[in-house]
Amino acid sequence: MRYKLGLIGHPIGHSLSPWIHKHFLDLAGLDGEYKLYEGDHQQLPNVLKYLKQEGIDGFNVTVPYKQMIVDFLDEIDEDARILGAVNTVVLQNGKWKGYSTDGAGYIRSLTDPFPNLLNKNTSVLLLGAGGAARGIYRALIQEEIGRVDIANRSVVKAEQLIASMRFPGVDTQVLTFQEAEEYLGHYDLIIQTTSVGMKPHVDQQVLSLENLSADTVVSDIVYQPIMTQLLQDASDRGASIHHGHAMLLYQGQLAFEKWTGQSLEIHHLVDELEKKLRGENS
Ligand SMILES: NC(=O)c1ccc[n+]([C@@H]2O[C@H](COP(=O)([O-])OP(=O)(O)OC[C@H]3O[C@@H](n4cnc5c(N)ncnc54)[C@H](OP(=O)(O)O)[C@@H]3O)[C@@H](O)[C@H]2O)c1
Predict the structure, then answer these.
(1) Is there a single domain that holds both residue 55 and residue 112?
(2) Which has more confidence, 30 or 43?
(3) Which of 61, 87, 193 should be mutated for ligand 1, with most atoms under 8 A from CB?
(4) Are 115 and 165 within one domain?
(5) What are the tens digits of pLDDT across the range 119-153?
């Protein structure tokens, strides 16, 4: 069998997904292709019709289609339904089923280097309340982490995020960035999910780390650049850091599992992708 896989979104010319899935196909010893299918907002129904005609086995979904695709699929996984977003679509028995692998992919990327970090005593600060934060927040509460606070520029958006997926047993509070800066030393893990610090604004940092404890792990899901200003600052203060490109790999690993049934060992690719990104950034 030759797998037909791909990505839909706009713009996707610089996507790393073809690189990632080519490596996954090679690792799995499978024949296949992973193509980019680019279109604008109005073209989504046509793109989907074309994919069905092509006989595609599955595809990833990125900006701006993650939310709007929900209305065009035959079935939606429970997590993706609650998140209101899909990043992976699988053809199952002639029907398209949508999943979200971002949150679970993030958890895998984190527990790979930090296997004992997440437990019921862990205290997490999530910075941001956008699409990526929603997936990560849901995955964290499913892990039954003790405390997950959220700080966001728009406090209302953070409150809406929590209200959309209340979960008993997890303490959550919404904070302003100023409050978060003050309480920073109380957290075991800080996860940065805003777009602040992303290329070309590489000298920006969403909040001050003045009160950071060196025992805290600081994670930034922004991966361009690979060493964000926030991660550099955290590292300079003696904290452990976690780079965003690993999430990209592990959400892809979960998508690949859904398409092919193969669960791959991809640890070594984290360094490979880092090298690729550093090369592109220099
Ligand atoms: N590593 C990965 O695999 C991966 C996966 C997904 C996303 N990402 C990255 O994560 C970032 C966010 O993506 P997303 O899809 O969640 O975007 P999104 O839904 O547009 O959310 C953007 C978030 O950034 C905040 N924000 C934007 N500009 C800000 C500023 N100047 N000051 C403070 N906060 C600001 C927004 O706050 P408000 O709510 O107040 O507007 C919101 O919380 C992007 O850089 C994206 O590339 C990485």
Answers:
(1) no
(2) 30
(3) 193
(4) yes
(5) 999 999 999 999 999 999 999 999 989 999 999 99
